[in-house]
Amino acid sequence: MKKRSPGLSRRKFVGTLAAVGALPVLGRASILSAATSPAQAAPQAPTSSGQARTLEQERREALENLEKALKPIRDFSLSVEVEPAFIFRARR
Amino acid sequence: MLSEDTLYLPVAELAKKIQARQISPVELAESYLARLERLGPKLNAVAAVTRERAREEARAAEREIAAGYYRGPLHGIPYGAKDLLATRGIPTTWGAPPYRNQVFDYDATVIERLSTAGAVLIAKLAMVELAGSGGYRFASASATGPGLNPWNTGTWSGGSSSGSGAATAAALVAFSIGSETWGSILTPASFCGVTGLRPTYGRISRYGAMAVSWTMDKLGPMCRSADDCGLVLAALAGHDPSDPSTLPGNFHYQPFPGDLRNTRIGVVAEDFAANGEPEVERAYAAALEVLRGLGAELAPAPLPAFPYAPVAETVISAEASAFFEELIKTGKVQELVDVAQQAGIEAGTQVKAVDYLKAMRVRALMQAEFAKLFERFHVLVAPSLLFVASPIEADLNTVFKGSSGIGAAGNLLGLPAVSVPCGFGKNNLPAGLSIVGKPLDEAAVLRVARAYQQATDWHTRRPPI
Predict the structure, then answer these.
(1) How many Cβ atoms sit within 10 Å of the Cβ of residue B393?
(2) Confidence grade of residue B465 (pLDDT, cut at 50, 70, 90)
């Protein structure tokens, strides 16, 4: 069985967790391409640090977070024998 | 009306009184309904009170029991269901403005099975919109407003099963049903000081439940004791032809009377210094001592090294965006309350098939490594969270940064887990201990939880509401 890619140390892994957010059902990535209407551009309620955020900002951050989440998966080294964990089971 | 003391009784105790005809199911339902209507709005815990259905079911239970037909421990017991479960003729909003008028013409299998067991549906309970499918930045991400914690209404009740946690903690219902994809039962259970069970993936039918992730969603009970979780699980578990992911075999709950001798417990390491609160760390350390005192053998359980959170993130992103494709296409996604949630749901459409499949391949390796871990331990334990409920206005991306791998791993691998109250942190807010088992071993998880609750009284404490 192949192990994870080198370089994914526990310290780095914890950093990745922090970057992508975590419980409960996490932060999300976003797309940059969708149009932003004036209504969408209205800022959300201020954060605890006092900053208001627009949909465009959230989209940018979500995209960055998605890339951060995908990197350790793309870097992960797998042998050709490993098949996806298909949890759904065929039933007659 | 029945007293508050009665409404706080565990299901097992209420059941004995109902069976002995010391409590009338109609009076019990009316008492919970009154409390629900009085306190539910103060906690933003209720999506809809199902008064008519409740009275009908309670009257039926009363008739049957009077006629000598007792169905079992849930007969005549009032409960609430997270508002992502389809209920015939009653709005099912998924906590989100775009679905405010949605009504199904059938009951979810869970509702159907509880009905068969004789339980009485008294409320659809509030939730984070779409169960947080796209992620969310604020507790306010719900059509019913932020879920308020009965221990301190300036703090969050947790998500996404916000109403289920708060309503159970405040005895607005005898028990509730929540759902978890990644943390949505254990988080509100921990924040609200209740006992929440996330069953094995496939244990309970998801038919009629909104999907976040078809391969990760679980439904489970939120109660005021581990025993109650066992009783509710027994009524719900089993194969359902309408949900092909359900597993064969029923679950029979047998309360285990003994201590924890010969029980090997793996302790998952957590970095409290970096991410936690010292008061929660002390409560957790004390909980481990209780387990040791009960005779359990505790040893460190390092988790196999995998990118758990990134894999969970990828799987959920892709599957949730697929489920909400129509919401995105029609532009109704813009009606969601939380801007981060809008952005997140759109973002999942950018996950490539090759990345999704790679994540699923890594998931397969995780399964194999965890099987080895469970050869050494009967259960694993970890703090449910390293902190207590956050202020209602807090940025949740900041609050939840650096959470542990066991939450992501447990959900990716469909492992059963229970969160039990284990003390209090700052501002007298509850902390939770999580007990995680191997697939289909809810019995072990509940056995440890029950032994812990026999030795402590944290689960009996009531919020000052």
Answers:
(1) 15
(2) confident
pLDDT band at B451 (very low <50, low <70, confident <90, very high): very high
Interface contact flag, B400 A47, Cβ < 8 Å: no
Q: Does A64 touch chain B (CB under 8 A)?
A: no
Candidate list B24, B31, B82, B133, residue with the active-site label: B82
- Quote the pTM value: 0.91
Report the alpha-carbon distance of residue B455 to residue B298 in Å, rounded. 17
* Inter-chain touch B316–A26, beta carbons under 8 Å: yes
Annotated catalytic residue B160 = yes
CATH number for the B1-465 domain, one of 3.90.1300.10, 3.30.470.20, 3.40.50.10140, 3.40.50.2000? 3.90.1300.10
Q: What residue segments make up the domains of chain B, in order of their start? A: 1-465
Token pair for B306:
């995998």
Q: Are the Cβ atoms of A66 and B362 closer than 8 angstroms?
A: no
Check CB contact under 8 Å for B402 and A71. no
What value of ipTM does the predicted structure carry?
0.89
Strands B46-49 and B120-125: antiparallel
Q: CB-based contact (8 Å) between A58 and chain B?
A: yes
Residues B349/B321, Cβ–Cβ less than 8 Å: yes
pLDDT value for A56: 94
Q: CA torsion B204→B209→B213→B217, rounded to 10°?
A: -30
Residues within 8 A of B (CB atoms), A 21-50 only: 21-31, 34, 37, 39-40, 44-45, 47-49
Helices (H), chain A: 10-20, 38-41, 55-75
CB < 8 Å to B334, chain A: 37, 39-40
Question: Among all residues of chain B, which has the CA nearest to that of A21?
Answer: B401
Euclidean distance between CA atoms B346 and B134, whole angstroms = 8
Q: Which residue has the higher pLDDT, B225 or B402?
A: B225
In this prediction, residue B275 carries a pLDDT of: 83
Q: Tell me whether strands B78-82 and B175-180 are parallel, antiparallel or unpaired.
A: parallel
Region B43-47 average pLDDT: 98
CB B163 within 8 A of CB B49: no
**Of A24, A48, A61, Cβ closest to residue B160:** A24
What is the pairing mode between strands B152-156 and B148-149?
A: antiparallel
Top pLDDT among A12 and B41 is at B41
| DSSP assigned state of A4 | P
**Residue B85 C-alpha, separation from nearest chain A C-alpha, in angstroms:** 18
Bridge partners of B220, per DSSP, are B178
Share of chain B above pLDDT 70, in %: 99
- B401 flagged as catalytic: no
Mean pLDDT of chain A: 59
How many CA atoms lie less than 13 Å away from B217 in the CB half-sphere?
A: 28
Set of chain B residues whose Cβ sits within 8 Å of the Cβ of A38: none
Task: Report the alpha-carbon distance of residue B59 to residue B435 in Å, rounded.
Answer: 38
